[in-house]
Amino acid sequence: MAYAVIRIRGRVGVRRDIADTLKMLRLHKVNHCVIIPETETFKGMLQKVKDYVTWGEIDKDTLVKLILKRGRLPGNKKVNPEIIKELTGMDVEELAEKIINGEIKLKETPLKPVFRLHPPRKGFERGGIKKPFSVGGALGYRGEKINELLEKMM
Fold first, then answer.
1. SS3 144
2. Which of 52, 87, 97, 102 has the most CB atoms at less than 10 Å from its CB?
3. What phi, psi does 43 have (nearest 5°)?
4. Distance between CA atoms of 80 and 20, rounded to whole angstroms?
5. Which H helix or E strand runs over 151?
6. Which residues belong to CATH 1.10.15.30 in the chain?
7. Cβ of 118: how many Cβ atoms within 10 Å?
8. Superfamily of segment(s) 2-59+115-153
9. 141-145 contacts: CB < 8 A, separation 24 or more?
10. Strands 2-7 vs 53-57: parallel, antiparallel or unpaired
11. Which CATH class is domain 60-112?
12. DSSP secondary structure, 42-103, as one string
């Protein structure tokens, strides 16, 4: 399984250790998204930055859409299925399946590891960006509902 992690809050007033963890996750700016494997190391990092990001399990269909719509190659070149087939030797669905299953990491592909997303259409949840998802906000773990947020942000 793989997590999609999206940075929600900015960098003003962030403690140094949390800023370092966000940097290790490659979440430098708001609305940036990374796909990470579900390991104990990453889970600990997510717990540390839970007040600045939201995350959940991404499904294959959403990852395919994310790669095709917001994926970029070095030089900020757009991605299409033919380019992915040519560079990786597999189609987009197969690539997404392997990323989700943890067989390959996104950084091992020619794609950039960070997806730059738009702010969500119709905004975040009613509670805003300072409350956890469990009480109606936007932060922290949200499970399968990350796919709905990603759809709003693509």
1. helix
2. 52
3. -65, -40
4. 33
5. helix 146-153
6. 60-112
7. 10
8. Ribosomal protein L30/L7 (3.30.1390.20)
9. 141/46, 141/50, 141/54, 141/55, 141/56, 142/54, 142/55, 142/56, 143/56, 143/57, 144/56, 144/57, 144/59, 145/56
10. antiparallel
11. mainly alpha
12. HHHHHHHTTTTEEEEEPPHHHHHHHHHHH-EETTTEE--HHHHHHHHSS-HHHHHHHHHHTS
User: Which residue, chain included where needed, has tokens 């700016």?
Assistant: 29
CA-closest candidate to residue 58, choices 73, 49, 48, 70:
70
- pLDDT (0 to 100) of residue 118: 95
Q: What Rg value do the Cα atoms of the chain yield, rounded? A: 15
pLDDT given at position 124: 85
Q: How deeply is 139 buried, as exposed, middle or buried, from its count of CB atoms within 10 A (0-12, 13-18, 19+)?
A: buried
For the chain, 154 residues long, the average pLDDT of each consecutive 10-residue run is 93 94 95 94 94 94 94 92 90 92 88 94 86 91 93 92
Q: Which two tokens stand for residue 1?
A: 């399984």
Q: Where in the chain is the domain with CATH 3.30.1390.20?
A: 2-59+115-153
pTM over 0.85: yes
